[in-house]
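Good day; I would like, with your permission, to put a structural problem before you. A protein sequence and the structure tokens that stand for its backbone fold form the material at issue. The record follows directly beneath this note:
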Amino acid sequence: MFAQSDREAALTLFCLPYAGGSAAIYREWARRVPAWLKLVPLHMPGRGTRHGMRAMHQWPELLDLLIDDMQPHLQRPFAIFGHSMGALIGFELAHALRARLGRSPVWLGVSACKAPSRRERELHWLTCPDAEFLDEVRSLKGMPDELLANREFMELVLPFLRADFHLCGSYDYRQRPPLQCPVLAIGGAQDEELVGDARNLLDWQAESSGPFRLESLDAGHFFINTHRDALIELVVGSLARVLRHGERFDDSLRRSYA
């Protein structure tokens, strides 16, 4: 199972995967998080329960799809966590939910993701040659060489990988009133995409008026796979501190956790 029962949980945590990933990367999380946390991984087009769906290349339609998935779970306070591309999607979902429904997360967790204001546009991922695209995928060290060399497998996943890369590359940062929730940013000390400039993660602080915390793991970009237990410990610990101190939470949630 991916989630605990509603009766046990005080807080819902929506989880989003990295580019090319699926909700399955959070399968083990559901067995390791405490009962007060209901885990709800969100399914991307073309993966998992949506394996028959076409790839999505545009932000509005992706946000519409995921907000529809989230709405049945918004009856209790909720938090959002995403890794790499998932963090960027989670950030946009937080703004969209506030604008459309007047609902905001009580916590935002972003890992292995450059701050939105630091991103650069790259619009060639849908059209560049396969060899160039696969070189980029290989450089991230998130997919085994044997899969990259499997032509049949890559023909299946390339449309969705390209769509995800295009979403990241076409991201258009907009100035908006900041969120108000605590933000936890986590980076890998060996992540070549981020370590060149401390602001890549520190600038997440500007995206919320709530408390900000920065953590680091001695790992590369895909520490969500290689350092899963350490990452879960950071996420659960941060959420527990928010619950204990009542940061930005309503009274009903504080009572349910007391």
Q: What stands out?
A: DSSP finds ten helices and six strands in the chain.
